Protein 1
Amino acid sequence: MANIELRDNNIIINKMNHPSCVTSFIRCVNKAIKRKIHNINIHCDCEKESIFPDACLPISALIQNYKKFYNINFNLKIPKDSYLKKCCFGEHLFLLPEELKKIKNPFDKILTFSSKEGYESQIAQITQTFIDYMSKDTVCEEGVIKSLIWCINEVMDNVLVHSGEDTGYIMAQYHRKKNRLAFCVCDYGIGIHKSLLESKHKPATEIDALTMAIQEGIGDGKGQGNGLYGLYQIVKENGGKLTISSGESAIMLSDSKGLQKFDNGEKPAKTNSGTIVDFQLDISKKIDIQTALCKINGFDGFDIRIDNMWDENNRDWLRYNVYENCSGTGTRLAGKELKNDVINTLRRTKAPIILDFEAVKTCSSSFIDEFLCKLFLELGVLEFNKLIKIENMDNFIKHLFERSIFMRMHTEWENVSDKK
């Protein structure tokens, strides 16, 4: 069974789990256009496990592109409770910065972004939303979150600066069992080859253009030319995966196969070539971002939330407002989010943290156990005392914390005694 096939005026999508699915979809639509079919039914009944951003996002954006250039009417046949419905496959989300701040989980959603006047801060807020979610959801190895800031910002910025279009698309998935983050960003602008032809480099083919694009300092003159180079270096340092497609060509980087080149794709007839950038990072592997980006003087990983935490009275310490950063104080899940966030913040900044409980008037014992006690146990006594200060804690919450510490220590001693 083909992943994607054309039957009369129906396109059947069985899987969207590989960049080759995008080529298959384009071929199906191009065939329909040649047959002068302008009403196409798209049947999508894929399981979530067979849907990845590197195919799902470009195909979804292509549908909008074909509507624009060919006046094709696409009738999407998507089950109401399906993953595709939930990720906005048919209707992308265009959110302003203030709306993005309210999204707790930006993953598994197709978002659009713009360079039009008034939307200058949209890219920064999309990046911040992804970073804030990951920081609270999972403890990432050192360098991962800083690298994400670079990768997401640079790839989205590349779309708006070099594509000739004012709209781009982004989608991401978090595969917990594999410790993998998968991000895809695409546009249907002029493509990398045409962009570089406007520069001094003049690559002969699309493959030449893609190969040049991941080299240091190569660009069309509108930027420094280090966006895709930096992305390539970070993915390589992490042992992740990177695919860059434009027009009929693609390059793929993987830890097992190195850099591969392909030029047997297909592009939408009579439209722009477009560019698709898909990268995957392993959050369980450290990334030395200074080493990865050493030729372009590294990267400081600016994060406005972290920047606002520096204590006014002692700039060597961060002041972490527990109340402002928590999603509640009554559950273990809320406590786990804070514990993860504090550990990720320590790893990113290498600075000690003041945990300020001033606005927290009550909490559950399970919340404080999951947050502070597990933080204490994971850091150890010496590191906890060196890196963590607790201020403005209510006496009742202090009692819960001390009691939880006592109970956990007591349990540990009993386990040691039982083993003897």
Protein 2
Amino acid sequence: MPINSLLASSGHQLLLVDDSPMNLDTLLATLGDSYDLRVAIDGQAALDLIAGGYRPDLILLDIMLPGMDGYDVCRILKADEKTSNIPIIFLTALDTDEDEAKGLVLGAVDYISKPFNPATVLCRVKTHLELKHHRDHLQVLVDAKTHELTEAYKDLKQVHTQMLQQEKMASIGQLAAGVAHEINNPTGFIGSNLNSLQKYIGKLNEGIAFMEQILKSVDDPEMAAQLKEMKRKLKFDFIQEDIDDLITESKEGIERIATIVRNLKSFSRAEDDTLKPTDLQNCLEGSLSVAWNEIKYKAKVEKNYQELPPVNCLPQQLSQVFVNLMVNAAQAIEDQGVITINTCHEKDWAVVEIGDNGSGIPPENLERIFEAFYTTKDVGKGTGLGLSICHDIIQKHQGTITVASKMGEGTRFTIKLPITAGELRATG
């Protein structure tokens, strides 16, 4: 279709701003058959019309107007982002080079001197509408390409950050494995020494009991009184009762250290992308052990584990998710609170819920909580990557992670994992 026909049939809207009835009659006769025209007889009327929501495709603007002149009208329109892209053609009897230059500097696209030729006006209007059409189309293309490049940059930045996070986790894993190995040695001999000490204490108690039996047969009241006083002074009875409890508690502590070391080794062990049948309860318990130092002073943990079949997954990566959610739950509790960990089985899905009765998340933040780099924590206390990485890991397992929260009542994360996932989903 020829451009003239295109423009004439497209319903373009033109605003005519002139205080001369003769000029307006000429413009209406020249342009009325091709365009939708509206008229303003002074600058303020034109601005009021546009302020009310009218958006012409082009403005024919007289310079010599009552009250506010055309230059001021042009300056105001070009200063407003909403109207700055409307083409303005000045119509005026002022035809010096200085007048024309002033109008173009203010942002006008053309300058037509009075008295004007109707054919010239029509030709220039068509030309500038055509230019506006191409400029608008080009702007759409630029905006689309800019959006595409921005999204690509965000994706690249996120992938780069995740790679750094993976390298950081690998370094932490190596450090954890080394620390676990170093802790193992002293833990082992302390445990062995406690076993030996418990045996020795047993023999000492037997010896003390035997000697007390012998001394009872000695008919010496003074010696018996001295022995009784010494036992009271040295608290023999209390020591004999308490020493077994101390050794038992120490052995329990050693076993807890050994459990933490085993979990650290499991958490830091290199893992390929081969799915493994995993007991999620064991995975949660291991994660809880790793996160316990963050939790123990803030909350008690209530667990409700329903029996689950093994889930095909990468247990290390799920442990990273569980640890992150548990630590976040503890940080959401200001003084003392409760963290709940629940599991259940829904058809082909294993469901894990980790919740807290902490401060909650504002509704306006919930939609962005899984975005990379988004955090509500103070500067230096959060990178905004933890939940984004959790989201990516769960998506990689073809699962879902959702959040529900109420201010002042707490937050609950729900993870659903397919029990029989056959392969990992690419992310990033």
